[in-house]
Amino acid sequence: MSIILKRNLRSPWLLKQVVACYSSKSGDAPAAAAVKTIPKNLLEDKQTAYLQKENGVIFDKKPFKIHLDKDKTYSWCLCGKSKSQPLCDGMHKNEFLKIKERPIRFKVEKSGDYWLCNCKQTTHRPFCDGTHKQPHIQAAVK
Ligand code: FES
Description:
Blueprint: H1 2-6, H2 12-23, H3 29-32, E1 64-68, E2 74-76, E3 104-106, E4 112-116, H4 135-140
Antiparallel strand pairs: 1-4, 2-3
FE2/S2 (inorganic) cluster binds at residues 62-63, 117-119, 121-122, 128-132.
């Protein structure tokens, strides 16, 4: 939980949602997985995760569980237009779409299953932090 509190969460409401999401014994995806903390992107200091202020379009209203290997570098889709969600497929390079967001490169500390954000609104790119529970995100995808 300390990693959550150290980060700059946008609002008390969001902090409450994150705590509920990661401490609940039942509920939706991350809580059910008994995740205690949000994983760390080992490349976050070297990549663009915090340099890009804009979020992409909302792709889905829930996270996506994926197996990641600790020795691989991944690119998480930030723009929300990739057809290989939650990972980048290069769609942002299509000049006709005029997409400003770039993918977030990331690595994980150990191999395993991770919940990656698929709403593209997380403040802990690329990992789900419970932001998707906000009403406007839930309402955006039918
Ligand atoms: S899917 Fe959970 S924060 Fe985006």
